[in-house]
């Protein structure tokens, strides 16, 4: 069985603060894929990033960065200098061949960035 | 850009009514999904379809059925709506090639209230 845990249900920060959203996953598969999605108030989940289990290189895209650590089964997401437009619910998800290629989602973290 | 369109953004129904939620995608994706989103529970898979006329149960299929007569359209049916089916329903699609690495494209969701 596979599982994704996002322990932080809600985070509130003030604009320009840095914030890290935690994601811990469980799987017995050696090949797997991790995803982050953003759900703004409009409701539509938007894809942010995917990583495969063989690529532990961290990634940076503008103010966003992701830290993948297999040793701790974590795939954390950091927003640097947060902005009000970053306010959304963020989901971490896991996909493997042996789970029928289905995505397992975490419970989501609601991020509120105040001006 | 891929577009996944859900027929209604908000829907109010009465207990016992038969409810149809429609989803259409315009990118010729083979796979389509229905998720239910509840606070703290993340996204839970109700049903999915690998291709036309194919359907598979997800994690919480009870009380729901689906129909996929055409590749672009995937319908979720609540045979007899109950108050515990009040929720946000999200449709998603994905191309089959490259699984399980493929990302999902989501609709904006239907907030269903059953009174």
Task: Describe the protein in words.
With 115 residues, chain A is mostly beta strands. Chain A contains no helices and twelve strands. In chain A, a hairpin with a 4-residue loop joins strand 8 (64-69) and strand 9. Chain B starts with a strand and ends with a strand. In chain B, strands 2, 4, 5, 6, 9, 10 and 11 form a seven-stranded mixed sheet that branches. Chain B has a four-stranded antiparallel sheet with strand order 1-3-8-7, with no helix packed on it. In chain B, a hairpin with a 3-residue loop joins strand 4 and strand 5. Chain B is mostly beta strands and 115 residues long. Chains A and B meet through strand 5, strand 6 and strand 10 of A and strand 5, strand 9 and strand 10 of B.
Task: Supply the key terms.
A: 115 residues; mainly beta; 4-stranded antiparallel β-sheet; B: 115 residues; 52% strand
Summarize the structure.
By secondary structure, chain A is mostly beta strands.
Number of helices of chain B: 0
Distance between the ends of chain B: 37 Å
The most extensive contact between chains is: A-B, 28 and 24 residues
- What percentage of residues of chain B falls in helices of 4 or more residues? under 10%
| Main sheet makeup of chain A | 6 strands, mixed
Write the H/E string of chain B, N to C. EEEEEEEEEEE
Question: How far do the termini of chain A sit from each other?
Answer: 41 Å
- Helix count of chain A equals 0
Oligomer: heterodimer
Mean pLDDT of chain B: 92
Low-confidence stretches of chain B: none
Rounded average pLDDT of chain A: 92
Shape descriptor of chain B reads globular
**Percentage of residues in strands of chain A:** over 45%
Strand count, sense and barrel status of the largest sheet of chain B are: 7 strands, mixed
Instruction: Report the helical percentage of chain A.
Output: under 10%
Hey, roughly how much beta strand do the residues of chain B contain? Answer: over 45%
Rg over C-alpha atoms of chain B, rounded to the nearest angstrom: 13 Å
Elements of chain A, N to C (H/E): EEEEEEEEEEEE
Unreliable stretches covering 5 or more consecutive residues of chain A: none
Radius of gyration of chain A: 14 Å
């Amino acid at each position: 069985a596979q599982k994704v845990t996002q322990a932080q249900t809600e985070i509130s920060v003030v604009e320009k603060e840095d914030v890290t959203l935690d994601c811990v996953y469980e799987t017995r598969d050696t090949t797997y894929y991790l995803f982050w999605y953003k759900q703004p108030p409009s409701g539509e989940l938007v894809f942010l990033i995917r990583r495969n289990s063989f690529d532990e290189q961290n990634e940076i895209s503008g103010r966003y960065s992701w830290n993948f650590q297999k040793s701790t089964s974590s795939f954390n997401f950091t927003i640097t200098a947060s902005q009000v437009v970053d306010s959304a619910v963020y989901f971490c998800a896991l996909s493997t061949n042996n789970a029928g290629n289905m995505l397992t989602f975490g419970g989501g973290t609601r991020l509120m960035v105040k001006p | 850009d891929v577009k996944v369109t859900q027929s209604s953004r908000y829907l109010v129904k009465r207990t016992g009514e038969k409810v149809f939620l429609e989803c259409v995608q315009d990118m010729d994706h083979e796979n389509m999904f229905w998720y239910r989103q509840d606070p703290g529970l993340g996204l839970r898979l109700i049903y999915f379809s690998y291709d036309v006329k194919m359907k598979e149960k997800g994690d919480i299929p009870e009380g729901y059925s689906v129909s996929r007569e055409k590749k672009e359209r995937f319908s979720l049916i609540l045979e007899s709506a109950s108050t515990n089916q009040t929720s946000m329903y999200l449709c998603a699609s994905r191309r089959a090639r490259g699984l399980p690495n493929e990302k999902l494209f989501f609709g904006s969701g239907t907030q269903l209230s059953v009174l």
